[in-house]
Amino acid sequence: MLQTIFIRDNRDLTIAGLQKRNFKDAEQIVDRIIEMDQKRRDVQQELDNVLAEQNTIAREIGAMMKAGQKEEAEAAKAKTATLKERSKQLDEQHKEYEQVLLDELVKVPNLPNAIVPEGKSADDNVNVYESEHKPVLPEGALPHWELIKKLGKNQAPIIDFELGNKITAAGFPVYKGKAARLQRAMISFFLDEANKAGYIEVQTPILVNADSGFGTGQLPDKEGQMYHDAQDDLYLIPTAEVPVTNLYRDVIVPEGDLPVKHAAYTPCFRREAGSWGAHVRGLNRLHQFDKIEIVQINKPEESYKALDEMIGHVKGLLEKLELPYRILRLCGGDMGFTSALTYDFEVWSAGQERWLECSSVSNFETYQANRLKLRYKTSDKKTQLLHTLNGSALALPRIVAALLEN
């Protein structure tokens, strides 16, 4: 989340950034945060003064007792009792203001980087790169959900949507034979490529607690998009970004360990509530899918160089797969809640004659790190928030669709 001190010192810049995101009531919520922060600081100042006075009187009482000034000491004790009651009230008020301030701060998305384009929807994203050649298929070419039936020949299809629906629900396909082997092969390929690029592979839980969801910004913004086990209050992860980044929650990373670079394969789970229509057919949109995630934690001055490196890594994967692709810089209205700058990768689906998103690569700057309390000590021993970044490298379903159709 945004730092209160930044909002206070950069009111107009914060409002302008939120307006670029088309964030409703930006000016009102920023002013509310500044007002609540001032109340919190005023109460903190009064509390500090009362506690200081208590300490002073406590020392004076000891001196009075030694000097035989019993009446004066009793009067001082009575005043101390009054001050203790007042400090208790102030402490409760301070906690109340802090909670109200936090409740307001978590509603506010990250501020977009200066190069994020203006815009309200995906139609306003900027195409920054596109492959020169896209395959042109003969008339009557089939989309992947029809192709897989033919690949199964007289047997069941190699990707069985109906069977997945039978044992779970729509959006949970069953992969068989060559399709299952292709999934396994691509997972290994993507992890091996990440390893060559210096990412340390980790295996993490695929269930996380609410603190982890809060740390990376999925909570309280995206409860409706995650599968939740109410009994144990655990969430199935929407992406490996959540557990991998949370490995460093409440951690001060030694400067010599930076940058941190991790890669992880996990299944991912997304409810995709409200999704319908032709764009969700086949592998286009699933509730469970496999993905390799790359995560970096870096110094602020190095993070955009790291973002370029991550973009180059994803480009390399798509070029090795010989898939036509394009890269979009997302506009303010289409970015994720926690991102400062996002690039989406889309592969060309020749059978459907449309682009399919297969990766997002983002820099979150200090937004997640502030929630996570993820810091490092600079050479002059100052504690500073780090920047977090992540990207899909890659999500499998639409890659499989594109490979089949192209």
Q: Radius of gyration in whole Å, from Cα?
A: 27 Å
The biggest beta sheet is recorded as: 8 strands, mixed
Task: Specify the structural class.
Answer: alpha+beta
In sequence order, what are the helices and strands, one letter per element?
A: HHHHEHEHEHEEHEEHEEEHEEEHEEEH
How many distinct beta strands? 16
The averaged pLDDT comes out at 94
Cross-sheet strand order for the largest sheet:
1-11-12-13-16-10-9-4
Tell me, what's the shape? elongated
Give the CA-CA distance, first to last residue.
Answer: 42 Å
Query: Helical percent range?
Result: 40-55%
Number of helices: 12
Strand content: 15-25%
Low-pLDDT parts are none
In terms of topology, how is this protein built?
Elements: H1 4-9, H2 11-20, H3 26-66, H4 70-105, E1 126-130, H5 144-151, E2 159-160, H6 161-167, E3 174-175, H7 178-196, E4 200-201, E5 207-209, H8 210-216, E6 228-229, E7 234-236, H9 241-246, E8 252-253, E9 260-269, E10 288-298, H10 303-320, E11 325-329, E12 341-349, E13 354-363, H11 367-372, E14 375-377, E15 383-385, E16 387-395, H12 396-405
Parallel strand pairs: 4-9, 8-14
Antiparallel strand pairs: 1-11, 2-3, 5-7, 6-7, 9-10, 10-16, 11-12, 12-13, 13-16, 14-15
Helix pairs in contact: 2-3, 3-4, 5-12
